[in-house]
Amino acid sequence: xxxxxxxxxxxxxxxxxxxxKCDILVKNGVIIKISENxxxxxxxxxxxVSGKYIFPGLIDLQVHLxxxxxxDKETIESGLKSALCxxxxxxxxxxxxxxxxxxxxxxxxxxxxxxxxxxxxLYPAGAITKGQKGKEISEMWEMKNSGIVATTDDGVDVQNxxxxxxxxxxxxxxxLVLMSHCQNEALSAGGVLHEGDxxxxxxxxxxxxxxxDLAVYKNLVLAEKTGCKLHLLHNSTKESVNxxxxxxxxxxxxxxxxxxxxxxxxxxxxxxxxTQGKMYPPIRSQDxxxxxxxxxxxxxISVISTDHAPHLAFEKxxxxxxxxxxxxxxxxxxxxxxxxLVKTGELSLSDLLAKMTFQPADVISVKRGDLSIGSxxxxxxxxxxxxxxxxxxxxxxxxxxxxxxxxxxxxKPTHVFVAGDEKLVKIGKNE
Length: 431
Known about the structure:
The chain has 13 helices and 20 strands. By secondary structure, it is an alpha/beta fold. The relative contact order is 0.17.
């Protein structure tokens, strides 16, 4: 493992309130020193990053890696490579694999595979219920002992309140965060996009905001009762933001996230039956986006994740009702948010990074997401002046579905280190 000094860069570390030009010394995969003008010792490599920005490695709490079962869509290798190319050094893998990640063996497979690849950090989430069927709670304790950092049924809302309450009690007992996909199935059944002017124009069944709002309320009430640590996935509605704010004020242990698609796009993306815009939950109207951004400003929403969901290109080419949900996103999430939120003055760079570094780390209780002395050297160096066009066929992901295709954004990583090991060089994507 090499020792090096990053020189000439501007360090932004929101957890430690660092936002200035300085150097970083790394030895044996650990951050040793951060200060101005560090002298380069014999045997220590100097990496000049003048004009660039140095961040903690980014963390994504919601990534679908598809392995095992659908390696034609994504593998752990391709997904981690794609994440690294977006400056993301740690991902939480969702359990909707085939078979579902609901057992010790399934968890151990993912961890072992990631360790052999030696790319980024993979933290598995285990299913709340066996087979994600909402009927029988999975073996949380055994999975935690094998390495899960959270429990979630991911794209499926646990509809049975009794089972959800019991799952929250188990999660609290085992000191696990329960991540909830909030969607009332009775209200959303058959819907394929946001219920509004565009769904009416296209004569397609819509999904009302209330389908999410009711499920969010249910989860918050049960979290308040059980004392469970709750994380609400991919929030998309203004009322969700209001509810989360209210329950946080009441002392409920809840965190919440939203995603780049809900911050950069509106339901007009679905016009002309554009299936790339089909998301679950759906991309909504401008008033919801405005509320989400306000929620970010107030830190009611403290995390930005991607819900990276790779599919084969032809699956998005089917008629809208039959088309699959979701989009890839790990390779462009920071650039999208930096361009939409920081360059427009909605958020400071430090505030954005907080939602993509130490705050997600806090949700899953891992020691990542900051540049503290003595911490593991997960570091992303970005050229914030680099403008580029998002093109899915130039990405590392195997997915062929990208709702952001053709968008021009700013911010591209030039170096990404995991435990002090440069990864973009390894995958041939350093610039």
